[in-house]
Write a structure and sequence with these properties.
The structure holds 2 protein chains of 2 kinds. Chain A is an all-alpha fold. Chain A is built from 3 helices and no strands. The longest helix of chain A is centred in the middle third of the chain and has 19 residues. Helices cover 29% and strands 26% of the residues of chain B. Chain B has 13 helices and 22 strands. In chain B, the strands form 4 sheets. In chain B, strands 1, 2, 7, 8, 9, 10, 16 and 17 form an 8-stranded mixed beta sheet that branches. Classes of the chains: A mainly alpha, B alpha/beta. The complex binds flavin-adenine dinucleotide.
Amino acid sequence: MPQLTLHANIPAPDDFYEALLAAHEGLSKAQSDALNARLILLLANHIGDPGILREALEKAAGQSAG
Amino acid sequence: MTRIFETPIYPYQRSADQDAPAPVRHKVVVVGAGPVGLVTAVDLAHQGVPVVVVDENDKVSFGSRAICFAKRPLEILDRLGCGQQMVDKGVTWNLGKVFFHDREIYSFNLLPGEGHRRPAFINLQQYHFEKFLVDHIRHMQADGAPIEIRGRNKVSAVGLHNDHVTLEIDTPEGSYNIDAEWLVACDGANSPIRKMLGLGFTGQVFEDNFLIADVVMEAEFPTERWFWFDPPFNKGQSALLHKQPDNVWRIDMQLGWDIDREAELKPENIRRRLHAMLGSDAKFELEWTSIYTFQCARMEHFRKGRVLFAGDSAHQVSPFGARGANSGIQDADNLAWKLRAVINGEAPEALLDSYCHEREQAADENILNSTRSTEFITPKSEISHIFRDAVLDLAEHHEFARPLVNSGRLSVPTIHDGSPLNGPDAAGLPAETRPGAPAVDAPLRKGWLLDRLGDGFKLLAIGIDVPDELAGIEVVQLATDESDALAARWLGGAGRALYLIRPDQHVAARWLEYDRDAITAAHDRALARQ
Ligand SMILES: Cc1cc2nc3c(=O)[nH]c(=O)nc-3n(C[C@H](O)[C@H](O)[C@H](O)COP(=O)(O)OP(=O)(O)OC[C@H]3O[C@@H](n4cnc5c(N)ncnc54)[C@H](O)[C@@H]3O)c2cc1C
């Protein structure tokens, strides 16, 4: 079964991080929230695999809980 | 003009029971002549079980309420001999359009599945549906079927006993008592019977109001289902437009929670809302309007001794996805043959517990679907609103997001996986016809598979000989090349198969080889005899 990738997988992390922030540049909070939601949906669809999505949801939720 | 739902169609008539010295005992009494009570009674009488229906009213449903009737309920009506009228009168639609703000974001086509006699859905007013059933009851009566319907007979008290139920019934000429060996409570979401027996109904109320308006208009709108999220004419809310027969259009407008109900119901306010939606020059007449709040709730157990609950009395869903009447009709379908088998002594009472098992499972599935639709249509939190709008934004440009849009999911039958009545499965046969599934229709050289199955236990033998007579089971022998659809749905890659089919046309068990003992055992199991 495929597993959620938790080792570093983004080739140029600084570039990606900058692009992520740039996408939000100049947006209101509402516009940013909407962009984030669209981004999550696009990426989730790209992943597709229900097991990986569930694992990602758990990881993300666990992180904020503590 | 008097409307169909203002005319008494089963007016009060004095019954001999009212003059009897002691309460007359009936095999089955059905309380409520809504869609579910009527189908239950027709099914029982169709199978030869004497049945009396009592209703406090004497008319069909006031106003339309349900308008979408799905494929499986139509197939059940076919089995009972009254599906064709409904389909002839009903409107068949395939195209749905979804709007967000001021624009159409996409459309979808519910392409009719090839090789099914019935469409995925028809639109038909609930009052027509009920009227056809009452007409059907009149025909059955003319043919001597043991079915009776008593208008303006209101059940005011029930008493539970070991082997019967006592009923007190109020009529315009005073009250009388009867006994019922079995009582089927189809008395709607507010079920007085449920309350009289002190049984709970738990779930979730949606804090929202919906204006339902059925309007008569000669309009250019095509026969499509149009759904709006947050349209300019109903800011922050949703709306739905749907066609019914006789130029009647269903409009469903979400109003929110804090409303002045009385003001909203004033015809001039309704007209103002409808003009904003349909155009200021639209010409229409209001046929029926109402404001609803919805809940999803169910009883914990659909049986209490000799009382069985079916339809809205047992479970209620929000109307998104049209699962109320559709699932209630499937309750009736599930219950009628079991009650007959218990009454005739062919099966123990435990068979009725399988009714609860199977239909409680279906209720959970329907509540889940309808809750999810409601959550999408009326997001409860800020973040669910953000995601909802993101889905709609993406759906306009990308196909991938469209399956996430949820304005109500097609009502499809429950597959009773894990039912105590299910017998063995055979590896390699198609999943859609596994034990617990309703038989999937297919064209035959002559006619349709479901017509061949009818009711009663059947052994469907495809490409395999059945050498014996089997007690209580009729053999339906078919060749493997009747149709491609038959082979795809019932054989998959296998060259032959045997299916034991229940009287409600659900698959009980299936095999690749004939084995008389295995079939007899599965038959016993499907009747809860072991
Ligand atoms: C706006 C709206 C839209 C809907 N759309 C759909 C749809 O598209 N598709 C769908 O499948 N469902 C839909 N539904 C749900 C559907 O209308 C109900 O699920 C259906 O009517 C339930 O049928 P029933 O026979 O269980 O109960 P009901 O239709 O409520 O009938 C109960 C009957 O019991 C009688 N009764 C009550 N108390 C007593 C008593 N004490 N003595 C004697 N008789 C009594 C009443 O007079 C009534 O006739 C919709 C509902 C609404 C409100």
